């Protein structure tokens, strides 16, 4: 974070990606990017649209974050694009019992799906 008497400039760095923003004067962002470009090879991609799996949408009401693309990609990967939607997959009062004699379930896929969320 850089701060002057007139504005604050925020920087978020992840490996070789940088988000630069300020709450007020966009000229400070432009100046900062120009100064960085004098020292490093960089590409200004303009307004933020997608970063680390999160989509950003701006409108007059503010900034909105979404992981719609990530969820769609996950559904395609699992061949679940046309899966039936349910609000809760299990009743909240269900009593689970162990089925004796049933083969053990391979939890690998479950772990991958939950881990990717």
TrEMBL record:
InterPro entries: RVT_2. Residues 12-90 form the Reverse transcriptase Ty1/copia-type domain. It comes from the Eukaryota. This is Reverse transcriptase Ty1/copia-type domain-containing protein.
């Amino acid at each position: 974070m850089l701060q002057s008497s007139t504005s604050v400039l925020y920087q978020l760095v992840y490996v070789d990606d940088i988000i630069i923003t300020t709450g007020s004067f966009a000229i400070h962002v432009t100046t900062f990017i120009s100064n960085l470009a004098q020292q490093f090879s960089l590409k200004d991609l303009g307004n933020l649209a997608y970063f680390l799996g999160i989509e950003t949408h701006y409108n007059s009401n503010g900034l909105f974050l979404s992981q719609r693309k990530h969820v769609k990609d996950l559904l395609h990967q699992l061949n679940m694009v046309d899966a039936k939607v349910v609000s809760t997959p299990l009743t909240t009062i269900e009593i689970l019992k162990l089925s004796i004699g049933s083969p053990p379930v391979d939890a690998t896929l479950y772990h991958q799906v939950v881990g990717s969320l």
